[in-house]
Write a structure and sequence with these properties.
The protein is α/β, with parallel strands linked by helices. Helices cover about 40% and strands about 15% of the residues. Strands 7, 8, 9, 10, 11, 12 and 13 form a seven-stranded mixed beta sheet that branches.
Length: about 300
């Protein structure tokens, strides 16, 4: 029997369920699930253990302290989750900071969910994994054909962009995923940059974000810099820029001198491995190749640092 009561514990999972036309089966979500807007009416069954309103440096310290104490970064409301009686839970194993982990979900089930839900766990290290996760969720929802159709549509849109950048100048790009400490984007981001007609000088495809230094950024001296902190929208990103843009060497960077520093919405697009990965690619393409693309994401998905 196809699952009829679904709880998703990460935002990208919620978007995938809805993109598969199964949003009517959702009965609960994580505190971070916010798209499509209709899901905000669903009860949230998680919350963070730390204050998310503080600076990026303070958030990093709080998360590291929790991890060092072997504590989960997020709390699951076991009573509310049990009351929702899900028959399918969607979670992830990619990042213990990004969303509720598989370990947390298994603990919740072990604590006594009478509904004994099936568990689907995403692990989107690279683009191929992201598409595999979509098909996996579709199969778990008993609509495998919709998963194939969704992936086919997304890949076609991405391929159309990649085809249009062939032969154009390829900027050397550094993508910053966290400001304090400085981290470079990995996983699927280097792949998106290639598709958008650029080359990543610091990130490694298929590898999780890694801590770097300003000296490493300066040594790479990229043509273009993207700043896309995980979980931050454009306004929050601008508010967090001080540790980076006040560095004595900031103004000497080629990308800064030439006005090629872009901000990306790390919450909705750049760090959310769901169907809107295509919109992320569109943001990259229209910012770096404005002569070839006009998708209309400027000001919402991305902005120029001025």
């Amino acid at each position: 029997m196809a699952p009829r009561r679904v709880v998703t514990l990460l935002a990208s999972g919620t978007e995938i369920v809805c993109a598969l036309d199964c949003g009517d089966r959702l009965v609960g979500r994580s505190h971070e699930c916010d798209f499509p807007a209709s899901v905000r009416a669903l009860p949230a069954v998680t919350r963070p253990r730390f204050d998310t309103s503080v600076t990026s440096g303070a958030i990093d310290r709080s998360v590291r302290d929790l991890v060092e104490q072997a504590l989960s970064v997020y709390l699951v409301d076991h009573e509310r989750l049990a009351a929702l009686a899900p028959d399918l839970l969607v979670t992830q194993v990619q990042c213990e900071v990004c969303a509720v982990s598989l370990k947390d979900v298994e603990a919740a089930v072990a604590a006594g969910l009478a509904s004994r839900p099936a568990i689907v766990s995403m692990k989107p290290d690279a683009l191929a994994d992201l598409f595999a996760d979509m098909r996996m969720i579709a199969s778990a929802l008993d609509v495998p054909e919709r998963g194939v159709q969704l992936v086919t549509r997304l890949r076609a849109r991405m391929r159309a962009i990649a085809d249009r950048v062939v032969g154009r100048a390829r900027p050397r790009v550094a993508c910053i995923e966290w400001i304090e400490p400085l981290m470079v984007a990995g996983n699927w981001t280097p792949e998106l940059l290639v598709l958008a007609g650029a080359d990543d000088v610091l990130g490694v495809a298929g590898t999780h974000a890694g801590v770097t230094t300003f000296d490493a950024l300066a040594a790479a001296d990229p043509d273009t810099i993207w700043i896309t902190p995980c979980g931050f929208d454009l306004a929050r990103t601008r508010a967090e820029l001080a540790p980076l843009v006040t560095h004595p060497g900031w103004s000497t960077l080629r990308a800064v001198r030439e006005g090629r520093v872009f901000l990306g919405d790390g919450n909705a697009y750049f760090n959310r491995p769901g169907p809107r990965v295509v919109e992320t690619l569109e943001c990259l393409a229209e910012a770096m190749h404005p002569e070839a693309f006009r998708f209309g994401h400027e000001g919402s998905g991305w902005a120029r640092l001025s």
